[in-house]
Specification:
The chain has five helices and no strands. It is an all-alpha fold.
């Protein structure tokens, strides 16, 4: 329902904002503003995307999981799409995703929201000391929607 409301309200808000800017700047200046924000946004999205791709390659080359860089790449892609859509609200959101500071805040928010649904436990590895029950059985708890019958 929220997505439907978003898809219905964004074009109305964008149209209203463009009309108000048209009254303030005039028709041709408003058109120029739309074109300039699209071109500048495309340039910055491309440069930020290329920088992120280099970071992903470097992290993978050093054996690290590039989770943050991949999420950054996705946010930059969304920013590019928002900047290509004519409108002022989408341009502000798109440029906000291109700025590393605000993109980092949004990335952390998305990661926290995603990780909230998971329960992490420590897994015993070779060399870890752990208590075992008789006959080498390690007690555990199944976390999820379904319980396995015993």
């Amino acid at each position: 329902m929220k997505i439907l409301l978003l898809f219905l309200s964004v074009p109305v808000i964008e149209t209203l904002l463009l009309y108000l800017v048209h009254l303030w700047l005039g028709f041709w200046n408003t058109i120029a503003l739309i074109v300039v924000t699209a071109v500048v946004g495309w340039y910055f999205a491309r440069s930020q995307g290329m920088r992120t791709m280099r970071g992903i390659r470097m992290e993978m080359g050093s054996g690290q999981l590039p989770a943050e860089s991949l999420l950054d790449g996705g946010l930059i892609l969304v920013a590019g799409i928002l900047l290509m859509v004519p409108g002022l609200l989408t341009d502000v959101l798109g440029f906000g995703l291109l700025v590393p500071l605000t993109r980092g805040m949004i990335r952390r928010s998305i990661a926290n929201r995603f990780l909230r649904g998971f329960h992490f436990t420590k897994i015993a590895t070779m060399g870890d000391e752990f208590d075992s029950t008789p006959e080498g059985v390690v007690e555990g708890k199944v976390v999820g929607k379904e319980e396995i019958p015993r």
